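Input (structure):
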């Protein structure tokens, strides 16, 4: 089932998500629904807070960007209670967008070399060093679990320049090609 994406300004996007305690049929269904929502929205990642659930759950399928970033080929991942360790390396600026911030993209500096620890959908533990654009996707999605958005990583000047667009999103004056939930009770 496709779920609505919660847009900028909604309080759930600024909450620190709670750990997932155990596997359940409800969790399995939620994971399936999150993948369906992500694909329908043409995203490469989706965090549970983006669908209104303040739990530490992320789904990623980076395959659509594999032509530009080969490290993303075949990378479909369900991340439960992920933990990221930023490893050494230079910060690289690349454009990022977000389903919760439709119509916007900004250059964000990130170190694209991380160690990731997580549980998969069967609650099996994994640890992997991830590089390149896939590391950026993982960091972007895991930021949502901490109540952060990519715009929190841009300069105050850039944020000031997009202030009106952010206000339009928060007040429901931005259209989307996918189902959404606005922060404001006002609807288009």
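Output (sequence):
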């Amino acid at each position: 089932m496709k779920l609505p994406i919660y847009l900028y300004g909604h309080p759930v996007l600024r909450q620190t998500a709670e750990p997932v305690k155990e596997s359940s049929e409800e969790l399995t269904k939620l994971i399936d629904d999150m993948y369906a929502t992500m694909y329908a929205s043409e995203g490469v990642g989706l965090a549970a807070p983006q669908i209104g659930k303040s739990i530490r759950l992320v789904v990623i399928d980076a395959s659509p960007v594999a032509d530009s970033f080969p490290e993303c080929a075949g990378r479909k991942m369900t991340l439960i209670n992920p933990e990221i360790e930023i490893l050494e390396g230079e910060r690289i600026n690349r454009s990022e967008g977000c389903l919760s911030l439709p119509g916007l993209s900004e250059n964000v500096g990130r170190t694209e070399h991380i160690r990731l620890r997580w549980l998969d959908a069967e609650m099996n533990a994994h640890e992997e060093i991830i590089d390149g654009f896939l590391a950026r996707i993982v960091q972007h999605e895991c930021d949502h679990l901490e109540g952060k958005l990519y715009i929190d990583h841009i300069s105050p000047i850039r944020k000031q320049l997009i202030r009106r667009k952010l206000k339009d999103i928060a007040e429901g004056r931005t259209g989307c090609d996918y189902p959404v939930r606005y922060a404001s009770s006002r609807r288009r």
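Notes: The beta strands are 5-6, 45-47, 57-61, 76-86, 91-96, 106-111, 113-119, 125-131, 180-181. The longest helix spans residues 25-40.
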